[in-house]
């Protein structure tokens, strides 16, 4: 498989607190990688380091053979290859749905408004939100906002989509809608890295599952390996706790 992103010995500290400790992994073209683990294990920080919303303290992030952390590297261009979907949607409240999906295309990619509008509507159709193009975010439910956020990210034609616990802020009845859309994207061959606490979803869509614990990758493997036959005691304990919660 062709690696799109290669991460080598990545570390991230906040002051004296070492949150990520020597993480190495690849993301291959067309692969769906899910990252699971307890709260505070470093999952979201790791994702934010991949697209440089957080600056790593040490290590390398290789994209197409170049270290994006090297001095003088064109970071804005690198970021255009990555789509990001956040827990809290991060839509522009002063813009309607269509404008939210057009603004980055026009300002960052330099597309003409007519082309940006066409692409935005196509992606809003994909997520079932094309009927809401004139609505403002305040008029939408959480699940609808997240679907718009996915359409907005897709409209930038990313090579890799990053999802940071995209269902954690949603009411339970809205979770299924968002997961169904993500499953369709996975089936379409889009490269995805997903931080999630939805274990059944991770088991179903992943090519590879990564279990993080205390800032390291404690175990990784196929969904069958991780969910069916985990090797590490920490993985077993986490999965038992999540899949069989105490009453």
Automatic annotation (TrEMBL):
GO cellular component terms, alphabetically, are: plasma membrane
Task: Name the principal localization, coarsely classed.
Answer: membrane
**Transmembrane residue ranges:** none
Keywords, comma-separated and alphabetical: Amino-acid transport, ATP-binding, Cell membrane, Membrane, Nucleotide-binding, Transport
Q: Which residues form a coiled coil?
A: none
State the name under which the record lists this protein: Amino acid ABC transporter ATP-binding protein
Any one GO MF term held by the record is: ATP hydrolysis activity
Query: Which intervals hold domain ABC transporter?
Result: 5-239
Q: Tell me the protein family, please.
A: Belongs to the ABC transporter superfamily.
The UniProt entry, under InterPro entries, shows: AAA+_ATPase, ABC_ATPase_HisP-typ, ABC_transporter-like_ATP-bd, ABC_transporter-like_CS, MetN_ABC_transporter-like, P-loop_NTPase
SMART domains in UniProt: AAA
- How is this protein positioned relative to the membrane? Peripheral membrane protein
Q: Which residues form the signal peptide?
A: none
**Key word ATP-binding present in the record?**
yes
Compartmental location: Cell membrane
